[in-house]
Amino acid sequence: MDRQRRTVLMPSGVRRALTFWRRSTQARVVISTLVLSAVVISAVGWFLLRETRDGLLDSRVDTVLAEAANETSEAEARLESVPGRDTDAPAQLRALADSIIQRAETRGYSVVLAGPVDDERSVEDGTASFTSGLDLVASVPVSLQDRLATVGATPAWTYTTLVTRDEDGVERRPAVAVGSQIRLPADGRTYAVYLLYPLDEEQETLDLVTRALLTAAVLLLVLVAGLTWLVTRQVVTPVRLARQVAERLAAGRLQERLKVRGEDDVARLAMSFNQMASNLQRQIRQLEELSRVQRRFVSDVSHELRTPLTTVRMAGDVLHDARADFDPGTARAAELLQTELDRFETLLADLLEISRFDAGAAVLDLEDVNLGDVVRRVVDSTRALADQRGVSIAVEDAGRPCLAEADSRRVDRIVRNLVTNAIDHAAVGGREPGIVILLGADDDASAVAVRDYGVGLEPGESAMVFNRFWRADPARARTSGGTGLGLSIALEDTHLHGGWLQAWGRPGAGAQFRLTLARRAGFALRRSPLPLQPEDADEPGAPSRSAGPGPGRGSDGGRRTRATQVGR
Questions:
Q1: d(Cα 511, Cα 450) in Å, to the nearest integer?
Q2: Pair 170, 227 in one domain
Q3: For a Cys staple, 565 with which of 140, 223, 440, 548, CB 3.0–4.6 Å?
Q4: CATH number of the structural domain spanning residue 132
């Protein structure tokens, strides 16, 4: 129920996509291949980008360090050439900064000259000079400042972000910051020189490589998708054709075959499929012919036997009427002959009816039928047989008319077969003689349930209850003169109405047969007004249940129309 609710809450587009995903093998293969290819390409691309970036940065850092060392060496050389009598430290420092900044502007990097380093001041507070527009706080890393905070520190470098401000706004670029120390002869103090080299060319190269890899990845994914679609199509298309042919074969078009092309595995599969279809067609035609011959044989035999049966019937009637003049043995033989002729005539009628069902020639003469009237009429006609067997019959009315649009003759035959079948079993091994017939109705259907308290039903007999000529106990004679076809004909009559005929039973606890018919012809039954399992089945002391489900009252429990849960 929760799954159905989630399905209803899903957008229609999502439901269609999920349905397409479940039904299309080709789509699943293509999408799965694309996902796996995307993962592999992403991993390879990330590895290539990382290696390219590391190579570019390592090369740039080596160049920057060499250039910064040369710049520092030149600055120290210029300071050593200054006369010793020059003691104007600010002028000397400014001259040094101007020369370094002027050379840096022509080479594309920025300069910060700060100090003295032993004053323990920040770079912006102790800066002597720097390239115009440079944001000192954002551009000079604190970690690099700490490395150069003591006199005699060795040169160091780190990655940073070069931040410059001008009239157009703020510009941020990746850069490499190199720091070193120089000693000013005018005052003998040490100052820090920070050289900031931008990585613009490396960034452009990396962006170019990234774009190239993305373009190649997209093209490769498209190519993989196309190749996968073509490859899977060669495999899936024959499977789809086989499915279509199989569906047409299942629909009865037995002449359908697959086209065989080539000699590969798919072609051999098509040949095997066609051979299987040919064998099935041949066997089905043989079975159809056998069934047709069988139906024709039953019909012909039934018709042909009517003429000799009529002659034998006339002779039997004469003997039966004159039995008073015979000796006791001959009189008894005349009575037995009359009884068996009645049974033989009934058997011929049942065989003709079965042949009409098999040939599909049975039709309904629909009218409004009150099942209560049918039940009472059947009870009245079978009362003598029930009294002979010592079985009482009780009818429990539904309290409302049990109406159905049905063929009155066929419904009467169904109920008669159920009642005579119950009479045959009710008094044998039951806890009490008797038959109870229940009537039930609702707005959609009407039902009749025939309950007996006889031998019941053994496990495994449910599949055979309505089989032709089948009996639960072959050694027991039919006291009602049945032919073994009554329940089979009843089931066929029920199917002809589109109704349900089902059975329930337990060993030693009796059985119950339920007939359910729709109020209007053509209406699809969904439930029955009466339960299949009788209410007294769970009374204290009743035998444990061994066969047959027991739905609640008013529910059919989802059983099939042509299936019975328990059989006799």
A1: 8
A2: no
A3: 548
A4: 3.30.450
User: 296-299, long-range: CB within 8 Å, 24+ apart, which pairs?
Assistant: 298/351, 298/354, 298/355, 298/358, 299/352, 299/355, 299/359
Task: Look at residue 2 and tell me if it is in a domain.
Answer: no
Are 438 and 508 members of one domain? yes
Given 347, 362, 377, the domain boundary residue is 362
pLDDT in tens, the chain (568 residues): 444 444 445 677 777 777 777 777 888 888 889 999 999 999 999 999 999 999 999 999 999 999 889 988 888 888 877 665 566 777 888 888 888 888 888 888 888 888 788 777 777 776 777 787 888 888 888 888 888 888 778 889 999 998 888 777 888 889 999 998 888 887 788 888 889 999 989 899 999 999 999 999 999 999 999 999 988 888 888 888 888 888 888 888 888 888 888 777 778 888 888 888 888 888 888 877 777 776 677 667 666 777 777 788 788 788 878 888 888 888 888 888 877 777 777 766 666 666 666 666 667 778 888 888 899 988 888 888 888 888 888 888 877 888 888 888 888 888 888 888 888 877 554 445 588 889 988 888 999 999 888 777 776 666 677 766 666 555 444 555 455 677 877 888 888 888 888 888 888 778 888 999 988 887 888 888 888 888 877 644 333 333 333 333 333 333 333 333 223 3
User: And the tokens for 452?
Assistant: 């007996």
**For helices 486-497 and 408-426, angle between their N-to-C axes, nearest 10 degrees:** 140
Report DSSP letters for 362-409, one per residue: ----EEEEEHHHHHHHHHHHHHHHHHHHT--EEEE--SS--EEEEEHH
Which among 307, 310, 312, 291 is positioned nearest to 359, based on CA atoms? 291
CA–CA dist 390, 479 (Å, integer):
12
CB count within 10 Å of CB 531 equals 23
**Residue 429: both structure tokens together:** 């091994």
Q: Which of 362, 381, 403 is at the close of a domain? A: 362
Cβ atoms of 114 and 123 closer than 8 Å = yes
Q: Is 47 buried (19+), middle (13-18) or exposed (0-12) by CB count in 10 A?
A: exposed
* 554 occurs within a structural domain: no
Same-domain pairing of 224 and 264 = no
**Residue 200: both structure tokens together:** 């613009």
Same domain, 393 and 518: yes
For 129-145, give the DSSP string.
EE-TTB-HHHHS-HHHH
Residue 433: which CATH number? Answer: 3.30.565.10
Residues 287 and 175 in one domain: no
Residues in the chain: 568
**Are both 521 and 387 inside the same structural domain?**
yes
Give me the domain span that covers residue 211: 11-81+200-251
553 lies in some domain: no
Are both 70 and 151 inside the same structural domain? no
Domain count, the chain: 4
Same-domain pairing of 93 and 225: no
CB under 8 Å to 401, separation ≥6 — which residues?
370, 372, 441
